[in-house]
């Protein structure tokens, strides 16, 4: 019974996260492209991170970014990553797992979606070689 309830709850979280990751009726507010040189610099410095973002009712929203604003690539501290490579990412762990899966598959660009307030933006990170 407990396992069934946890499975149902996990399914509900995934469904809610997918709904939040979907662009609003007006579509994306634009695309943010981050060049490989800035991605490499952030990886080298290890000065960018994320925390789990939740709604007031506790619903997972995604991964709230911190430290990205200083790179002036279009991302802002507080942006929430809600999707990576077409998969809803309601937590930091989900975001990292999906990004690692894509990178391991050899992609050279990582696509995603962020929420900034009520706006949704598409994001493309060019991965360093």
From TrEMBL:
SUPFAM superfamilies assigned: PDZ domain-like
InterPro entries assigned: PDZ_sf
Entry superkingdom: Bacteria
Protein name: PDZ domain-containing protein
């Amino acid at each position: 019974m407990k396992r069934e309830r946890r499975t149902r709850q996990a399914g509900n979280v995934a469904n809610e996260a997918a709904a939040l990751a979907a662009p609003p009726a007006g579509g994306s507010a634009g695309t943010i492209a981050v060049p490989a040189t800035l991605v490499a610099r952030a990886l080298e410095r290890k000065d960018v991170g994320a925390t789990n973002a939740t709604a007031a009712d506790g619903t997972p929203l995604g991964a709230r970014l911190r430290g990205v604003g200083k790179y002036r690539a279009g991302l802002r501290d507080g942006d929430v990553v809600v999707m990576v490579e077409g998969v809803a990412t309601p937590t930091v762990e989900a975001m990292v797992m999906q990004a690692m899966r894509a990178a391991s598959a050899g992609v050279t660009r990582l696509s995603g979606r962020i929420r900034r307030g009520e706006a949704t933006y598409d994001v493309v990170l060019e991965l360093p070689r």
